[in-house]
UniProtKB/TrEMBL annotation, chains A, B, C:
GO cellular component term of the entry, any: endoplasmic reticulum
Protein known as: Glutathione S-transferase 3, mitochondrial
Membrane-traversing stretches: 12-30, 92-113, 125-146
Location of this chain's protein in the cell: Mitochondrion outer membrane
PANTHER family: MICROSOMAL GLUTATHIONE S-TRANSFERASE
GO terms for MF: glutathione peroxidase activity; glutathione transferase activity; leukotriene-C4 synthase activity
Recorded topology in the membrane: Multi-pass membrane protein
Swiss-Prot/TrEMBL keywords: Lipid metabolism, Lipoprotein, Lyase, Membrane, Mitochondrion, Mitochondrion outer membrane, Oxidoreductase, Palmitate, Transferase, Transmembrane, Transmembrane helix
Transport is among the record's keywords: no
Any Pfam family the entry gives: MAPEG
GO BP, sorted A to Z: leukotriene metabolic process; lipid metabolic process
Length: 150, 150, 150
C-alpha cells in the first residue's frame, strides 16, 4: 500500500534547521577566509605545511578541520534530517538544532588550536544527536515496510 | 494541518538540473584524471607538493580546487534545490541551472592556474543564485509553519 | 498537473539502504581512527607527508582515500537514491545496495596499500550501479514533465 507524504507543520522546523546549518557553514567559511588572510595561506593550498608556515597547525587546526569536518558530515546530516523528519518531525528538528549548536562549539573548540578540545561539548552532543537521527531515519524506513495493506 | 507534497510539472526541471550538475561533476573528475596523468600526480596524493612537483600549483589549482570545491557545495546545493523546488519549482530550476553554468566557468577559470580568475563569472553568479536558493528553501519551511488550519 | 508523492513499501528499502551506507561510513571512519593511532598521523593532518612518515602512503592510501572518496560521492549517491526511488524504488534499492557493497570492497582494496587494487570489484560495480541510479533519477524527472494533464 502506497503512503502519501504529508508534511506536518513541524516539518517546517526541520527545513529551517537545515537553513540554519547552511548559515553556520557560511559563517565558518568566512572564518576560514579570514584565517587565510591572517596566516597567509592562499588558494589552492588546503592545508598549510608546517615546515613552510609557522602558523600552519593553527590554520589547519583552528579553521580547516572545523570547517571541512562539518562539510563531511553534511550529506548524512541532511539526509537523516529530511527523512527522519517525515516520521518524527518534532524530535528530528530538536536533534538537528542540537547538532547545529554542537557544530558551533566544535568549530570554536578547534579554533583554540588544540584538536583535543574538539572532543568536548561538540562531539559528545553531536554523537548523541546523530544516533537519534539515524534512529528516526531507520524508523521511517521500517514504517514504510511494515505498513499494513488496507 | 498536514500538507501533501505535490510535485508540479516544473519540479521535473529541478530534478533534471540536479542530473545536469551530476554530469558536470563527472566531467570535472575526468579533467582531474587527465591532469593526474599529465602532471604525474598519482593516488593517493590529493594535492601535489610544490617542492616535489614543478606543476604542483597548476594541478592543485587548475583541477583539484575546481573539482573539490564543487563537491563541497553539493550537499547544500542539492538540499536547497530539492526543498526550495517544493514551493518555487520554476525559480529554483532556473537558479539551479545558473549555478551549474557558473560552476562550469568557475572550473575553467581555475584551470588557467590563477586562483583569482575564479572570482569572476563563476563565483558572482553562484553567490547570487545561492542566495536565491536559500530564500526559496526558507520560504518553503516558513510556508509549512504558517499554513492555517482549515 | 501536480503529482502527489506516494511512497510504496519498497521505498522503505531505499531508506534502509541509505542507513546501511551511513553505518558503512561510520565503520570506515573507525578504521581511519585506528590507522591514525597505528601510523601516528594526528589531527589536523589529513594526509601524511611521505618525507616525514614512513607509513605515509599506507595511511593515505589504505584508509583516507577509501574513506574520503566515499564521502565525496555521498551527496550524489543519496540524491539519486532518494529521487530515483520515487519512481523505481525496487531497482533503486538494489542498485544502492550494490553500491554499498562495492564501496566496502573499494575500501578494503585500497587498504592493501596499492591504489590500483581499488580499480577492481569496487569501482566497476559502483560505476555500473551509478549509471543505473542516474537513469532512475532522470526517468523520475522526465516522468514529471511528460505527465499528461487530466
Amino acid at each position: 500500500m502506497a503512503v502519501s507524504i504529508e508534511l506536518t507543520k513541524e516539518y517546517g522546523y526541520v527545513v529551517l534547521v537545515l537553513v540554519a546549518y547552511a548559515f553556520l557553514n557560511f559563517w565558518m567559511s568566512f572564518q576560514v577566509a579570514k584565517a587565510r588572510r591572517k596566516y597567509k595561506v592562499f588558494y589552492p593550498t588546503m592545508y598549510a605545511i608546517e615546515s613552510e608556515n609557522k602558523d600552519a597547525k593553527l590554520f589547519n587546526c583552528i579553521q580547516q578541520r572545523g570547517h571541512q569536518n562539518s562539510l563531511e558530515v553534511m550529506p548524512l546530516f541532511f539526509a537523516m534530517l529530511l527523512l527522519g523528519g517525515l516520521r518524527h518531525p518534532a524530535v528530528t528538528a530538536v536533534l538537528g538544532a542540537l547538532c547545529t549548536v554542537a557544530r558551533f562549539f566544535y568549530f570554536t573548540g578547534y579554533a583554540t588550536g588544540d584538536p583535543r578540545n574538539r572532543m568536548k561539548i561538540g562531539v559528545r552532543l553531536s554523537s548523541l544527536a546523530g544516533v537519534g537521527l539515524i534512529g528516526c531515519t531507520a524508523s521511517f524506513g521500517i514504517s514504510l515496510l511494515v505498513r499494513e495493506t488496507a
